[in-house]
Amino acid sequence: MEQLFEFVAQHIASEQIMMAKKEYQKTAGEIYEDDKSYNTRMALFLEWYLLDQFNPGTRHTILEKIIEDNSSSWPLDRLDAYKDISNNIQALFEIKKVRDNSVTVLDLFTDEKYQVEEEDSKLAFRKNDIFQGRIVPYEDKYFFTGYFCFHPNETQRYIKGEAKKFYLLQRSWKKELNKLEKELLKIQKLYFKNSYSIEKIKTKIERTGFGTKRDKLAGKLSSLEESNAK
Question: Residues of 107-144 as b/e, b for ≥16 C-beta within 10 angstroms?
Answer without folding.
Answer: bbbeeeebebebeebeeebeeebbbebbbbeeeeebbb
